[in-house]
What does this fold into?
Amino acid sequence: MLRIAALLIPACLVTTPIDAQDVSARLDSVMKAAEAKGFSGVVRIAKDGKVILEKGYGLADRENRIPFTASTVVQIGSNTKDFTAVAILQLQKAGLLSVQDKLSKFFPTAPVDKRDITIWQLMNHQAGFPLGLGGDFEAVSRQQLIDNAMGFKLLFPPGSRKSYSNTGYALLAAIIEKVSGKTYDVYLRDRILTPLGLTRTGFLLPRFSSRDLAHGYRSNGEDAGTMLSKPHASDGPYWNLRGNGGMLSTVGDMHAFYTALFGSEKLIPFNARNGLFDPQQPVGLAGSDLVNVFLYERMPVRGIEILVASTNAAMKAPAVRGDLGRALGLPDETERESEDGPPARASGKPVSDEQSAVIDEFVSTINKGDKTALKDFISAHFILPADAPTAEQRAERLSELHSDLGLLSTVRKTAVDNGPVQVVVKTEKEGEALLIFDMENAPPYRIRRFGIQVGG
It folds into this structure.
């Protein structure tokens, strides 16, 4: 799960009066126009604590003609990370860990290059771990996730810079389970969701009805299913996804969560947050799997809160955000910034001609959109362990990637300290992206792992 570009509103802006009835009509008009262009999702907007729009648009399930409503359950993507961060801060407040604790405390066999990584560096994407170590729905156990992370050559020395990492947050989820003695899902239920009365948030424990879950739809109209229709473990998501994405919720529950987090001490005392979740600062938090998008914005000076969830890759939530802002009277100069900046730029030596040729063939094959060609490329150029996804399964994922991003064009390639190769590409549909290849350093330069980071 990716945390995509966030929307940040300067705190110094002067608030202006809003006629709730008039602006509600304008907002609804904006969303009906978006619905006519293919938007499917749900919007919740409040001003000074009063809801001025809370409504679903389009179909949550096209096959069964189930409309979106304000209570439809949606994916929240990387906003899952906010629950993980809260859990870590709670455990610190309870004296069970410190954000300055090192990985060696929780994983005694951690190799030398990772022993001194701190929890704080994991939380802030400064540990050097990659975006991911495989597909979200690969059947990876907690121990396998830990072993894979410990065996990965870090992208950079810990603490030297940032690179967005789902793997880092999966390790935080593992620490939460080790320290609390509970599964991630159960810990969130007992310490965050139940105390706030949130019954429509979680993964398996809310026991959602399939009719309540929104389906995602790719740009070509293909039904990508619901989160619970994907492979998962008996106690929650598999571990490439646990702690960093995959949670389900409603805009009402997410409003209640963020209101409690920013506006009270119900979850964490203000003096125990290590500078996170400052109630005085504007914030924009967003997550996406390139099909479903969830946006949350809080503007304390203006008293405005915006939540938007979308499920159609051809008409995503950011596409309507500007029009909603104008209907609210927000300035056009509202800045779009990535929470962690644009995709990390690799520094290091040039890529060898042999590695470059493999990467160029990879990009060319993806651009063809031919699953058979993708399978043949993967069979020839990927290392395929017996317990890993097959060439057919990987080809299916890469085909979906092509559908979501469109054509790729390479901007530059760089090898990071004889480790992963980072390739900046322009995508047809999503702007700039970063491809990360963990490759052999000698012929035939096969690919061990591949990841992609979109945002910025």
Observations:
- The first strand starts at residue 6 and ends at 8.
- Residues 1-341 form a domain with the Beta-lactamase fold (CATH 3.40.710.10).
- The chain has a mean pLDDT of 89.
- The chain has two domains: 1-341, 353-454.
